[in-house]
Structures are given as C-alpha cells and as structure tokens.
Write a structure and sequence with these properties.
Radius of gyration: 24 Å
Strand content: 25-35%
Helix content: under 10%
Distance between the termini: 82 Å
C-alpha cells in the first residue's frame, strides 16, 4: 500500500497552491467555520515567538478545498512541550464514529491509545461524524522541531499510516511528507482565549497550525468519489494522547479539560465539536464570571449579574474557588467556624486553656 501511495504522489504534479502553507491565515480561507468559545486549560501562550510557545489553544478553524487539496487552518498555539494536536477528518463515506484500537501503530501507538480498548469505550464523535483520516502534530525539544504523522481510518480498521516528517516553524520550516501532506506552524499568537475553564473568545487570531492534504489520500479503496466537503474535529491532547484539553473545535461552551479520550463522547456535549466546510461560525458568547447575589454565587455574564443587582468579580472568575468569592467576612471570635460567636466558641477556648504551656 505504501508503494502505491508514494507512486501516486510522485505522479501528481506539484500543485499551485492558492495560499502558502506557512501557519498564517490567508484571505482565501474566508471567515472561520468555527470560533473557540472556551478558555484554555493548557496554558495561555504570551511569548510571541514563531516557534516556542508556553501554552496551547485552538482559537478557530477554517476548512477549504481547492487545487486537489483539503486545507485546514487552526489559528492558535501548540505548546512546545510535545503536546499533541489531534485532527480527525470526515470527508467520504464510511469511517469510524467510535474510534477503534486496531488502527495503524503510529506515533508510539498514540492513535490507538484513544480507541476502544476492548471494553466498549473509545473516543466517540458527534452524530454524523465518521472519521476517515487522522493527522497528528507535535513540537518541542532543545533544538525546536515539529513532527507529524497520519493514518487512514477505514470502517473496519487496519488502514495505512506513516510518519510524515519533521520541520521547524514558518514557511521555511514546514513539513512536506512523501505523500504530499504539508504542515506548518507559527506559534507567535498572544491573542485569542485566556487561561481558564470559562467562556472565552478566539476571534481575530491569524497564526497557528496549517495543513494541506492531497484529496487522493482519502481514496485508498477507489470508492471515495469526488471529495467536495469535509468535517474536521481537532483538539489539543497531552504528550501521550491520553488527556484531552478543553480546546476542541466547535468549543465546549466553558468547560474543564476533558481527560482520557477513551471516555470522551462528543455526542453528550452540547453543540458540534467539529468545523465543517461552508459552515458559519457562531458568534462568541458573552464572557462569564463569579456573580455574588447576597451570599449565593452563580457564574453569569457581567450584564446579567448587574441586572440582578449582583456583584461581578470579573471575566473568567469562578464560584468554586477557595474561599468562595461570596463567602461572608470572617467573624472574629468564631472559633468553630459556624458564622456566629456564641457560648460554644467560649467553651472551646476554655477547654483549650493552657495548651502549649
């Protein structure tokens, strides 16, 4: 199979790209198909360097088909500690709705680490999403480098996969694989969502991860037909592909990190956790924060909090902090912590009289 794919790649003329694959958003992509609505639980990069980043986030997703290629642009950052960007693509009939664990052993078997371990679990996508292909990218090292892998995801498993290659950052450092896949990273973003688990907004980011995939790679069995559309589910994972962050295309509407991918079911999460060619991104929701209504706390937007006569503690603050933001002021003399000073507190003091002498 590898020989056939490599031969096809060599037979294909070098395409004239309508945009340079360099990790920078080009005008040809148009408006985003999704925009991130959740703060990042994997750190907010604030360095602004094209290679090294100290946080990971997916601020939006753009999907485009042109010149025989599927282009994917994911503005944001990929932290340079070998965090993984996992990209699943649904572009043809068939595929895997729940990820199998008998797919190609690729990236130290990281792909299969997300699949069903035989107990009926496995990463499960939204209704109507059946993954046909996986692309994985990571970066890091003392001498900065990027690395990428890809695999077919046939319905019955056991597809073909390969190491795509390594590179660095920007157009000069893009990865160009033997089958024609190209990937580029520009980590210089310092905008987009902030750190946390609340509502955020990824609008306006123009640098990140860019991928170009030859459409013929989806036709491993001669039955794919003409590829005219695509859905893309992408998320940030940890180095072992075993802990998904809260940075997912489509957004989670404010959420902590998702954890072990084998127990993640996107069907159970509101909204669509993928970007689709031709779709229009939902506008960013209003950010939320801790709102104190007397001693009760709720996570609300600033507008809603003030309309209810509450005290707003700021965007990205939470009620479940310690101490909680709406806790009453400590009562001096309240030894037992019940909020009032009574004879019970006096008795505690008397019973402990002389301790430590």
């Amino acid at each position: 199979m590898k020989t056939i794919i490599t031969t096809l790649a060599l037979l294909c003329a070098t395409p004239v790209f309508s945009q340079t694959v360099d990790g920078t958003l080009d005008a040809e992509y148009g408006e985003p198909n999704t925009v991130q609505n959740t703060q990042t639980g994997f750190g907010n990069s604030d360095i602004g360097m094209p290679d090294f980043a100290n946080g990971s986030e997916i601020d939006a997703a753009h999907v485009r088909i042109a010149n025989g290629y599927l282009y994917i642009m994911l503005p944001g950052n990929l932290e340079s500690v070998f965090n993984k960007l996992d990209i699943f693509i649904d572009a043809r009939s068939g595929g895997q709705h729940t990820l199998r664990a008998d797919n190609p052993d690729i990236d130290f078997d990281g792909l299969n680490r997300m699949g069903d371990d035989g107990t009926g679990n496995g990463l499960t996508f939204d209704v109507g999403f059946e993954a046909d292909m996986w692309i994985g990218m990571t970066c890091g090292g003392d001498t900065f480098a990027t690395y990428a892998n890809y695999a077919e995801l046939p319905t019955e498993g056991a597809g073909y996969g390969e190491f795509v290659g390594s590179g660095s950052s920007g157009a000069e450092g893009k990865i160009v694989g033997p089958t024609g896949i190209e990937l580029a990273l520009d980590n210089s973003n310092t905008g987009g969502v902030g750190y946390g688990e609340g509502i955020g907004c990824g609008e306006g980011v123009t640098t990140g991860i860019e991928v170009a995939i030859p459409l013929y790679l989806f036709d491993w069995d001669g039955k794919a037909g003409n590829i005219k559309t695509a859905k893309v589910c992408a998320f940030i994972n940890n180095g072992g592909h075993d802990y998904i962050s809260n940075q997912v295309t489509g957004g989670l509407g404010g959420s902590p990190n998702l954890g072990d991918p084998r127990y993640v079911n996107f069907e159970s999460i509101a909204g669509s956790q993928y970007a689709e060619l031709g779709a229009t991104a939902e506008p960013c929701p209003d950010p939320t924060g801790a709102c104190c209504l007397d001693v009760e706390c709720s996570d609300l937007s600033a507008v809603d909090c003030l309309a209810l006569g509450g005290e707003y503690f700021g965007d990205g603050t939470f009620c479940n902090t310690s101490p909680p933001p709406c806790a009453p002021e400590p009562c001096e003399g309240d030894v037992n912590g019940d909020g009032v000073v009574t004879v019970a507190d006096v008795l505690i003091v008397i019973s402990n009289w002389g301790c430590g002498e």
